[in-house]
Amino acid sequence: MPHSNGDLPVKQLYINGQWRSPIAEHYRATYDPSNGEGLAMIAQADIEDTRLAIQAARTAFDDGYWANMSPGERSRLLHQIADALEARQDEIAEAEMRDGGCTWRKAYLLDIPVGLIHFRHFAKLADFDPLESVPQITFPALSYNIVRREPIGVCGQIIPWNFPFLMAIWKISPALAAGNTIILKPATFTPLSAIKLVEIIHDTGLLPPGVLNLVTGPGQVVGPELCTNPMVDKIAFTGSTEVGREIMIQAASTIKKVTLELGGKSPNIILDDADMDLAVDGSLWATFMHNGQACESGTRLFVPASIYDEFVPRLIDRAGKLKIGLASDGASDLGPVISAGQLKSIEEYIKLGIEEGATPALLGTRPTDPELQDGNYITPTIFTDVDNSMRIAQEEIFGPVLCVIKYDSEDEAIQLANDTIYGLAAGVWSRDAERALSVAKRIRAGTIWINDYHLINAEAPFGGYKQSGIGRELGTWGLKEYLEVKHIHIPLNNERKGKFWYDIVVPQLED
């Protein structure tokens, strides 16, 4: 059960370059999912607070100082911010670990260092040429043409609880690099690393007031205001497909540009020539990294019938040796899930899988270790005898639950892999690179890993097919999601005669 040890620090809203309390003076505690300990009291914005943040971002953008700054100067300032973040990365990692329940290794060795790499990548991309070349037009009139890429304007950005720091970086760094202004809305469960990020940026004094704003609070209050307010030009959202649909509907009222990175039920295909040791470990990493609380997790594992009886027992034996422990324990492979509610949802899916006829070859349970009794812990589950039509194989569980599906032919594996509303990611395991590439080309998903999983490249696009999203993040593709395209036409002949259609003399044809 959540509990508090004495007075908790208070975290305010960040609007127009200042930390301020919410108008209604409403706060909510955030808790450590490892032990239920209260961490901080978080300001809860209402509609009026959100409107103040939107107005601040609108004023800052329309002022033009940040938007019209030279790309080289913006790049220089963003690199300085990256230096400040790197100098205090241990503070960010501590907040990420305690608030989100990710393991020490994940926070300190993966999420924060990778986030810094991605921020620096966009700091470099900020120094871009806004002009694009266009061929000279000779018909119907000789003209010179300019195509410019310009910042969109005010960006509402809503991030999830599973990778709070990394998702904040994925949102604010390309938006800032492009010259936009921002209202960032962190997840209710995990606001602390995003708050720490903004605190560090504020301490640098490098951003003008209103360029970056932070609004914490309930998504059902802040989200609709960001999506419908006409002063907001773009919405960027990472989260569930269900909420993504609502955001599209709300944003349609003012025809906002929307980018969505949504859910997944990603296939992970083992080919019959795969390196079995590598594929077993890789399949566990694909599913159980951060307890399966990743939208791209490879939670549907397709194993060929020819090696099924050897592969699956090795998979189960290896999974049973994963260490479940406190997030702060550097030896822990898996920490807690995010909340008691999420834990209950995972247990209900395990029960559903058994009811559907799947076999719990490894059954997830709550650990009996007294040290873990106050946290949201559950051990891994591996289902065999899974049919791809089962709900456990079609719905995003967001927990340490793996569905193993047997297949007879490569064509069948690809057909089953694509039989989902999602298309975020996939994995292929084979010793034959050409064969693996052939399979990868046939899978309808935005990212395909071959003999690897979860590796995110700052210079490559990330995003989904089908109901896994719209648009891309990272790389130049992610930067362009925050830029408008403008065409300027300049005629090279400014004589009036014959310029407009009603001045054109049509020759008379002889009888």
What topology, given as strand order, has the largest sheet?
A: 15-16-17-14-13-19-20
Judged by helices, strands and strand pairing, the structural class is alpha/beta
The structural domain count equals 2
CATH superfamily of the largest domain: Aldehyde Dehydrogenase, Chain A, domain 1
3D structure, described in words:
- By secondary structure, the protein is an alpha/beta fold.
- The protein has two domains: 10-262 and 468-487, Aldehyde Dehydrogenase, Chain A, domain 1 (3-Layer(aba) Sandwich), CATH 3.40.605.10; 267-450, 3-Layer(aba) Sandwich (Aldehyde Dehydrogenase, Chain A, domain 2).
- It has 15 helices and 23 strands.
- The strands form six sheets. Strands 15-16-17-14-13-19-20 form a seven-stranded mixed sheet, with helices on both faces.
- The longest helix is centred in the N-terminal third of the chain and has 22 residues, at 104-125.
- The protein is globular.
Give me a quick take on this structure.
The chain contains 15 helices and 23 strands. The protein has 511 residues and is an alpha/beta fold.
Question: In terms of topology, how is this protein built?
Answer:
Layout: E1 10-11, E2 13-15, E3 18-20, E4 27-31, E5 38-43, H1 47-63, H2 71-87, H3 89-100, H4 104-125, E6 131-132, E7 143-151, E8 154-158, H5 164-178, E9 181-185, H6 192-204, E10 212-214, H7 219-228, E11 234-238, H8 241-251, E12 257-261, E13 267-270, H9 276-288, E14 300-304, H10 305-319, H11 340-356, E15 359-362, E16 381-384, H12 391-394, E17 401-407, H13 410-418, E18 422-423, E19 425-429, H14 433-442, E20 447-450, E21 465-466, E22 469-470, H15 475-480, E23 483-491
Parallel strand pairs: 1-5, 8-9, 8-11, 9-10, 11-12, 13-14, 13-19, 14-17, 16-17, 19-20
Antiparallel strand pairs: 2-3, 4-5, 6-7, 7-23, 12-22, 15-16, 18-21
